[in-house]
Predict the structure.
Amino acid sequence: MASKPVLWNFFRSSASWRVRIALALKEIEYEYKIVNLLTGEQLSEEFTKLNSKQEIPILEIDGLHLTQSLPIIEYLDETRPQEPRLIPKDPVIRCKARAIAEIINSGIQPYQNTNVLKRLVAEIGEEKKNEWLKHYLTKGFRAIETALIQSSGKYCVGDCLTIADLCLVPQVYSAHRFNVSLQDFPTILRVNAELEKIPAFQKSHAHAQIDTPDEFKGK
């Protein structure tokens, strides 16, 4: 009997959150291993042996040790082809979904990385850090809004779930967390509201995890 998959993650890590959604959608049970980014557990010698880049998520599954959220999602979709298919078969739809996912993954999320923000505070102070963060997150959301106006139906790309949707919800959460207004992006807000109705997205939410602080649970 194959061992249960293991996911190293943190409740508020957007990259981990994406993988949690994929696992929930594919109905894959897994062991949840906490890596507390706020206390620096990812920097420990023990964790560095697991991932030399000192990042989460890590997924152990099928005898493999996988890192980086988007390749993990693609692996799950290719090896568990039951619906929903998160990587569309149609090349045009697939390209649109991957483009939106990458705007978030490489064009927004790195600016809010915990290590980046800590260094910014140390070098330029809290106020300047917040201005910097607002600028780059707003710029990224503007690009997402433009893409969704062209591609969205019920979800990011048409009416079927894709990898783009798994990236959108955690990023919208981060915008609220960092007090970045999304009032100028109605398409993003509409799609996000639809996604938050889906049980797998609710199960995977940052406020529903075993390491979610009590102050956030149920909110």
Summary: Residues 145 and 186 are 8 Å apart (CA to CA).
